[in-house]
Amino acid sequence: MPNSVLRIILLIWVVGYLLISCGSLVDGDPGGGLLGLVAGAVLFVPWLIGLLVLGVLVWITNPRRR
Q1: Of 2, 12, 20, 28, which sees the most CB atoms within 10 A?
Q2: Which of 17, 19, 18 is nearest to 47 (CA)?
Q3: pTM score, whole prediction
């Protein structure tokens, strides 16, 4: 159960970052695109750290196969 919850959180973490950093660019709004690009650049390192932490937690809680 914890592994499934962590996988869902990891998916939301990845997709949420992509929506924040690239969503306005896809919309075609240049002002919002610049804001999203700056926000994506500023949030990249914390996002990467979170991605690594969540990845390790998913790996640790993965049920062992016998």
Answers
A1: 20
A2: 17
A3: 0.70
